[in-house]
Amino acid sequence: MTFPELYILRHGETLWNAEDRMQGWLNSPLTPKGLEHARRQGAILAERDLEGFAFWCSPAGRAIQTAGLACPMAEAIHTDVRLREIGVGDWAGRLRHELPPGEGPDPYLAQYDMAPGGEGTAAVRARVEAFLAELQGPAVIVTHGITSRMLRATVIGDQVLDSPSPNGGQGGVYHLKDGVQELLT
């Protein structure tokens, strides 16, 4: 399957990111550093020709706050629940160091599949695949760390998952075009 050109942004740092707390579908506000992340993403996007691009965002407050700062050029920013972060079930709001460690090449990612009552990475992958299948053209997408990784793995390939990425690209913009990913910082 071929995919349109994409720019994928993870929301800026939140209070809970700074505390290393699992957020999942819960929300916490951006920190001053997170606000700077969003502004930096906006500066990166301002240097790009985004004519004809649709703007999409997770409905979570932290993503909407980031989109508002990073995407002032957008005439409209559409939300889609399929772009929300992975559900972490009983671990929502918990500090990572309180939880059992994940195993394998990326213990950080593996931890999400261990969460009791959580959604799991396969379910996130399925919902982002459905989102991408309906996408009508090039897009800027503001989302979350795990959701971003699943979007990028679907478009570029599973090698995106090969290296651990605890910060998930906060402050940067992933540009995906013609099967190639570039992190713009």
UniProtKB/TrEMBL annotation:
Q: Where does substrate bind?
A: 10-17, 62
Q: Which GO terms describe its cellular component?
A: cytoplasm
Q: Name one GO molecular function term.
A: phosphatase activity
Origin: domain of life: Bacteria
The UniProt entry, under InterPro entries, shows: His_Pase_superF_clade-1, His_PPase_superfam, PG/BPGM_mutase_AS, PGM_Phosphatase
A Pfam family (short name) is: His_Phos_1
Q: What is this protein called?
A: Histidine phosphatase family protein
Q: Which organism is it from?
A: Thalassorhabdomicrobium marinisediminis
